[in-house]
Write a structure and sequence with these properties.
about 300 residues; alpha/beta; 2 domains; four-stranded mixed beta sheet; 9 helices; elongated
Length: about 300
């Protein structure tokens, strides 16, 4: 796992652990459903960061006979589990708690100053975690927009932490609004409304993460800029006439499978063909800053089947 991802995950883990403890203390003093929902949310986030670290560690295992391409996709799998935890333990629980409190005749929110103080502290700590995730993400996202980075990043941890931290900050604000309005109006339903809003927010964020992690688990190609570098490296190799067909797929965030058919110059003996293939592989590895498993097959152009340079 990249050091930037690890730094963002660790910052989020310690921030959420501290926030979770503070929120449970706040719930004990206030009986606020928003505070309880936020406490459970922070527990879910803390567990999620631990799962991301576990996935990064398991992904570093060496390849085996049963898993010849290694375990890089463990990082995608555990990120998918994180999305499910956020959906169930975070979102659905908050919605259930809010609806339950809304159905009660009355539930008093007491010691509001405790809630406001703890939620304000949570915003500060969560803001630090979010700032760290943004800082580390800027180093790898380049000129792409934030939405494009989340949608198309092949490294799952940073988008997961970014969305988790953003959801946590927005949830804290919603809880603060719900409790404050409930205290001002002396209508505890606003606390329940805040809890339900937190749940809906977390369900939406989890749905985005589930969709993106599912796509990575199925297998995504190299991004456009990387594909162009690979194509250029192949076509510029001395002895290669043309690239006929290519497929790429991430077998982990830091490893790419490249399979291609290439047409070589005519009249080459076996030793020359092997040398050109080896040189082509070397040029591909020099062109992209990622580990590559490369399989190249010499072939000839068939006019009845035009070039198919795929993803």
């Amino acid at each position: 796992m990249a050091s930037g991802s690890t730094k963002a995950i660790v910052a989020a883990l310690f921030a959420n652990l501290g926030i979770a403890i503070a929120k449970f203390v706040g719930y004990a003093f206030t009986s606020s459903s928003s505070m309880l929902a936020e406490a459970i949310h922070s527990v879910a986030d803390t567990s999620n960061q631990a799962l991301l670290l576990l996935g990064g560690r398991r992904a570093r295992r060496d390849a085996t006979a049963a898993h010849p391409f290694g375990f890089g996709r463990e990082r995608y799998f555990w990120s998918f589990i994180v999305a499910l935890v956020l959906f169930t333990l975070g979102g659905l629980f908050a919605i259930y708690e809010g609806v339950h409190k809304l159905g009660e005749a009355s539930h008093e929110v007491s010691n509001v100053e405790w809630a406001i103080g703890i939620l304000t502290l949570g915003i500060v700590l969560e803001g630090y975690s979010f700032r760290t995730a943004v800082k580390e993400s800027r180093l790898v996202k380049g000129d792409t927009s934030w939405w494009e980075f989340i949608r198309h990043s092949r490294t799952p941890e940073l988008p997961v932490v970014l969305l988790e931290d953003l959801g946590a900050l927005m949830g804290l604000v919603l809880a603060l609004l719900g409790i404050s309005i409930a205290a001002i109006t002396e209508d505890s339903r606003w606390d329940a409304y805040g809890t339900i809003s937190i749940g809906v927010l977390l369900v939406l964020i989890a749905a985005v993460l589930v969709f993106e992690m599912k796509s990575l688990l199925i297998g995504e190609s190299a991004l456009g800029g990387m594909r162009k570098k690979i194509v250029r490296a192949i076509e510029d190799t001395p002895g290669v006439n043309r690239l006929l067909h290519m497929r790429t797929q991430h077998i982990g965030p830091d490893e790419l499978l490249v399979a291609a058919k290439i047409q070589l110059k005519p009249g080459l003996n076996t030793a020359k063909i092997a040398a050109i293939i080896n040189l082509t592989e070397q040029r591909i590895r020099e062109a992209v800053a990622i580990r590559c498993m490369i399989y190249l097959e010499p072939d000839v152009f068939d006019p009845d089947h035009p070039d198919l340079i795929g993803g």
